[in-house]
Amino acid sequence: xxxxxxxxxxxxxxxxxxxxxxxxxxxxxxxxxxxxxxxxxxxxxxxxxxxxxxxxxxxxxxxxxxxxxxxxxxxxxxxxxxxxxxxxxxxxxxxxxxxxxxxxxxxxxxxxxxxxxxxxxxxxxxxxxxxxxxxxxxxxxxxxxxxxxxxxxxxxxxxxxxxxxxxxxxxxxxxxxxxxxxxxxxxxxxxxxxxxxxxxxxxxxxxxxxxxxxxxxxxxxxxxxxxxxxxxxxxxxxxxxxxxxxxxxxxxxxxxxxxxxxxxxxxxxxxxxxxxxxxxxxxxxxxxxxxxxxxxxxxxxxxxxxxxxxxxxxxxxxxxxxxxxxxxxxxxxxxxxxxxxxxxxxxxxxxxxxxxxxxxxxxxxxxxxxxxxxxxxxxxxxxxxxxxxxxxxxxxxxxxxxxxxxxxxxxxxxx
Length: 415
Fold this sequence. Notes:
By secondary structure, the chain is an alpha/beta fold. Helices cover about 35% and strands about 15% of the residues. It folds into two domains: about 15-55 and about 305-410, Aspartate Aminotransferase, domain 1, CATH 3.90.1150.10; about 75-300, 3-Layer(aba) Sandwich (Aspartate Aminotransferase, domain 2).
């Protein structure tokens, strides 16, 4: 056996494909927060939309069905997922106005929506292919495109217009390499819910330029006030549209990793791409089987999310308190979210001179033990926004945002 004791080990570098991949929601500040907790400090984590961490319990019927399904969930299932769950998803969309025809073979279950997004990009993209993604975005979309060798191109959403997509900017960024456009509705991180008019304009551009539609609708039932969610696929029966959704937020079972992908529209021009999704679904063997047993019962009967988002409901109250407290801070403004579980306030540069929003987040964590996420972590180009999760109890949110206001009053990033 050769003597290798004096030979230095070969350096193992990070893959170059990761150079443009960031996920600041669980980034360096989150790691620092973990060290604070290990030292005995209590950290209020307003960085991750994890309902269970804030006392939101899963409906009892879901837990009962998952428990009852465990004896038969020991082995692999079909690569698309178990049939009862896919049948329930088809039935769900049959109740959505104008949603295109859907069959159980058009539905793939995944280990959360995240896995399905990554699979889609791997099946779709060659090196240099472009995907249009909103700015701000949920950063997994940008990461998934980059990991698949594609080029994420961000179209701007307009804060002055309620965070609606800037249609002119979207259209100007379409090139001959553009393959798809992502629509996150309701939006994470802004909470915007798009109107039929706005969505129709996006669909018209996709139709004109033969683009694949990718609809991230995980928050479609987390709606406030009179907001109405319109499924993107319902406006585009003549286009291939992939709709992503799951149980994690609406049903408060993020740890079950029960997500799905529903494929609608014409297929003849996309057989290679769709075969790629099938190949990737098969190569991962199958999604988590126990979590799939939550889907059928969750999608039927009383929807418990309705009670939480109505006036007097906990999620609605927390949204209102967060916005009210933020608006009291000098130099801070906030578009009222119409959906989802976040607020995305703006720090007026004339009042708060922030040159590095990641440093701001870290300094807030160190001083106040409150963890939020900087706006640039959502591919927003300017250092003037933060994302705050609205899941804590209203009194905890009120206290936290009041402390943030006191922190900002004396905070300065010196030159």
